Inverse folding.
């Protein structure tokens, strides 16, 4: 069971502000989703290899060869928050 | 003598090693040569986490990680994969770090170091691959930060996080472990320790079976030793005052040499690790035997070879092989002159003079070392003059022969020394008499007189022997 506190905590982890008046409603909705998925627990998976990835592929690798990078202008073109070639974020402590 | 670890100190280390000898980053083809470059010039959609960009694993990083694991006597995991470790911080552009979780690439290894009381086996729990975050620059002072600037050039650099079991029992052992690990990594040619931020250490410390604290932000081997000394003292003082050590993460303040509590709201389970869907699993264990064949001679093996091949003492062999560049330098010198004499000059003299000046062996060349040693072997200069030549070259440059000539270091001819000895005895009868009466200092005076007459170009020990044989 997901509690209202957990909803708020997960919201904080995701940096999403959760309106206090809504956390009860969200908890109920999340619990109903989880209950729905619980049906999967009823399937007998004894002796079945876990699915690690939906594609049946392994070892997709690239050689250690340099490819071209973006220019500084290209790297910064999607932001307004920049200074001296850097991205600029609020002060972090 | 057995070390009984009076405070029951247990230290485990987590070492983040940047695989900076690779040409490209972990999941994209951006060059790793970003040091001394303008910010955000070695970046692409993958390492900046732009929507839709797809990472592809660098095969070189996988094999370098396996080589490190094999050199640390680890087992390679049969099927290994990447996970997302989710947290928000401006240096992490995607909002998650691609790392490994329950299937690290290698695990269960060991490294033997010189412990407090002889050989100590340090078990390696695991080593896993991950990507480095970007680099943050704080504007203004840290208290009144006016913003943070971010450079993603480092973002996506291949890291290997090596985790030990808590087998280390003192700050000194922790430092020795780090020195040995760095040495092994440099022998493997996967790592250059001279680059900024190339090795970062977190340390877990507990005493007397109590709770452990984790100290983060240690950026040097010396720093690790200092941080651990401080943290052990802090825990001991706390216990002595009747307090309890609580499990927490602390930050090492390098400038002040102290650790301070970092209140973090995030716990391990808050990282919400889940398999990275953009990357498929790795099955690379079958490469083990090929990679084992490509492993270079490692420090311990090279040390043993130096003892058997060159007949140098264990102590010298250790000193010479504890830095690959010094070991290579020595072998080139030993090809040209007597290897035992060369070992003394490189391990004792040159290494000491370099350390004193904070220089590396790159500052000296093999041919010059050979010339100096050869002059000593041929008895053309004294040991002391040999040291003086090395010091002069390190301080102000020049070539050995010129320095010997400019400073008049060439040993005096035997006949010159011989007559200087005769003169000194004749001119200082009183001192000779005093020496015969048992006054040892008088001999130093007599030797000094001969050195003066030969302008320091005689070997003091030989002069002493000559005087004694002539007055008895």
């Amino acid at each position: 069971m997901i509690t209202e506190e957990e909803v708020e905590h997960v919201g904080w982890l995701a940096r999403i502000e959760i309106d206090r008046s809504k956390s009860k409603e969200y908890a109920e909705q999340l619990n109903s989703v989880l209950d729905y998925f619980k049906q999967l627990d009823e399937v007998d998976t004894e002796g079945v290899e876990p699915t690690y990835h939906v594609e049946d592929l392994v070892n997709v690798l690239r050689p250690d060869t340099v490819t071209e990078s973006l220019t500084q202008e290209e790297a910064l073109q999607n932001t307004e928050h920049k200074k001296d070639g850097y991205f600029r974020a609020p002060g972090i402590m | 003598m057995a070390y009984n670890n009076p405070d029951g100190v247990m230290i485990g280390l987590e070492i983040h090693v940047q695989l900076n000898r690779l040409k490209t980053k972990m999941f994209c083809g951006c060059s790793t040569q970003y040091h001394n470059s303008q910010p955000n010039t070695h970046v692409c959609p993958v390492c900046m986490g732009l929507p839709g960009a797809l990472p592809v694993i660098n095969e070189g990083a996988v094999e370098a990680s396996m080589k490190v694991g094999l050199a640390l006597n680890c087992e390679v995991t049969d099927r290994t994969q990447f996970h997302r470790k989710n947290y928000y911080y401006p240096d992490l552009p995607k909002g998650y770090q691609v790392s490994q979780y329950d299937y690290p690439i290698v695990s269960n290894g060991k490294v033997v170091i010189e412990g407090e009381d002889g050989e100590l086996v340090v078990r390696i729990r695991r080593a896993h691959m991950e990507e480095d975050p970007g680099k943050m620059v704080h504007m203004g002072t840290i208290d009144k930060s006016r913003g943070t600037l971010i450079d993603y050039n480092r973002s996506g650099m291949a890291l290997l996080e090596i985790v030990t079991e808590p087998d280390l029992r003192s700050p000194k052992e922790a430092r020795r472990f780090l020195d040995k690990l760095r040495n092994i990594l440099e022998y493997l040619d996967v790592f250059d320790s001279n680059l900024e931020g190339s090795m970062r250490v977190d340390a877990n410390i507990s005493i007397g079976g109590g709770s452990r604290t984790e100290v983060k932000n240690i950026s040097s081997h010396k720093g690790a030793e200092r941080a651990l000394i401080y943290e052990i003292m802090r825990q001991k003082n706390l216990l002595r005052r009747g307090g309890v050590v609580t499990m927490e993460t602390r930050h090492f303040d390098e400038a002040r040499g102290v650790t301070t509590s970092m209140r973090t709201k995030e716990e391990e389970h808050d990282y919400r690790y889940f398999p990275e869907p953009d990357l498929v699993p790795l099955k690379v264990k079958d490469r083990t035997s090929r990679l084992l064949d490509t492993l270079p001679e490692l420090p311990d093996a090279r040390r043993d070879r130096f003892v058997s091949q060159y007949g140098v003492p264990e102590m010298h062999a250790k000193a010479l092989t504890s830095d690959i560049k010094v070991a290579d330098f020595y072998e080139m010198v030993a090809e040209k002159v007597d290897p035992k004499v060369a070992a003394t000059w490189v391990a004792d003299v040159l290494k000491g003079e370099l350390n004193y000046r904070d220089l590396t062996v790159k500052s000296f060349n093999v041919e010059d070392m050979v010339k100096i040693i050869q002059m000593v072997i041929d008895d053309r200069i004294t040991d002391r003059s040999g040291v003086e030549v090395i010091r002069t070259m390190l301080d102000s440059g020049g070539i050995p022969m010129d320095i010997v000539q400019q400073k008049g270091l060439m040993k005096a001819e035997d006949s010159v020394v011989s007559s200087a000895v005769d003169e000194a005895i004749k001119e200082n009868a009183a001192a000779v008499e005093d020496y015969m009466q048992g006054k040892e200092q008088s001999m130093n005076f007599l030797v000094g007189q001969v050195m003066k007459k030969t302008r320091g170009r005689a070997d003091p020990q030989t002069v002493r022997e000559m005087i004694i044989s002539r007055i008895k």
